[in-house]
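Researcher: Structure for this, please.
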Amino acid sequence: MTERAIVIAGFALLCTLALGLTTLAHLRPNLLAPLSKVATAALAQRPVRIIAILCWAWLGWHFLAR
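Model: Predicted structure, token format:
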């Protein structure tokens, strides 16, 4: 398995985990806050928005520019 495949598998695992947590949050709202509410609260701060944009740009550059 190449390094690139390992990185892509890692990101796929993270996305699967996020989807699972989101599903759990919608099924049991008293146990876990939905991702949309967490993202809204986090992105209310300017430094977090800047970091999110930089991370998104980095991911786009590394996965779409090749």
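Researcher: Any notable elements?
Model: The helical segments are 3-27, 35-42, 46-64. Residues 17 and 57 are 22 Å apart (CA to CA).
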